[in-house]
Design a protein that fits this description.
The complex is a heterodimer.
Chain A: H1 3-29, H2 33-36, H3 38-63, H4 69-95, H5 122-135
Helix pairs in contact in A: 1-3, 3-4
Chain B: H1 2-26, H2 30-55, H3 61-84
The chains are: A mainly alpha, B mainly alpha.
Chain lengths: 136, 89
């Protein structure tokens, strides 16, 4: 394997390891869950991404062909991390109603969807819209 | 050189796993623990990938992919259980 390729792979592994540590230190050090949510969902995902790119380059170096597995895992992780973060935040707010006054204003006539019911007529309007589309 | 990098990578990921374990045991709220388990899943994927590089085999990618899927599905199922009181309505 070429020297520069080894250098790039080693660098990617080290940088990925650093990001993984930063994510977990953030998970331990930050004060409450809404802040803690940032560290693992961003830094750790990037760290795993670094290890996966390193693996892809390594097997391209020793076998001469690019394997698609890593791309699949990377895509899956990068797609699912925001969904997981959103679900965890929503469940946390659902479990702690006392956090409601701390939330920033939505800038809309109605509040955060975790606490407030949908505004009157919103569901009905959607249903009416669908019916109107069907008639067309 | 890759060997040294891999040693550092294994050390980093194992340290991260220990820190996550601390948060899992300590976690003041329920969602802290769910988040810690989700992060441990992602770190386990990194560990499997690094092990695959060390052993020079592509055999472990399927395991990593399965772990990624199960980690995501279990986290979402748990959050849904907390939110709705039921996983599948």
């Amino acid at each position: 394997m070429a020297f520069w390729l080894e250098l790039v792979i080693s660098l990617l592994i080290v940088v990925g390891g650093c990001f993984v540590i930063v994510g977990s230190v953030g998970l331990v050090k930050l004060p409450d869950l809404m802040s803690r949510l940032h560290a693992p969902t961003k830094a750790t995902t990037l760290g795993v991404g670094g290890a996966l790119v390193a693996s892809m380059l390594y097997f391209w170096g020793i076998e001469g062909k690019v394997s698609i597995h890593e791309v699949l895992i990377t895509a899956f992780l990068f797609l699912t991390a925001p969904v997981t973060a959103h679900f965890v935040a929503k469940a946390y707010l659902h479990q702690h109603p006392e956090k409601k006054p701390e939330l920033p204003p939505t800038g809309r006539p109605y509040g955060w969807s975790t606490y407030d019911a949908p505004p009157d007529g919103a569901a009905g309007q959607a249903a009416n819209g669908e019916e109107a589309e069907r008639k067309d | 050189m890759i060997g040294y990098a891999l040693t550092f990578g294994f050390f980093a990921v194992c340290l991260a796993l220990m820190l996550n374990l601390w948060r899992l045991v300590q976690g003041p709220t329920l969602m802290d623990r769910v988040l810690a388990v989700d992060t441990m899943m992602i770190n386990a994927i990194a560990l499997i990938i690094l092990y695959g590089i060390q052993q020079q085999t592509t055999l472990y990618f399927e395991a990593a992919l399965l772990l990624a899927m199960f980690g995501f599905i279990s986290t979402v199922a748990y959050c849904r259980f907390v939110l709705r009181g039921d996983v599948i309505e």
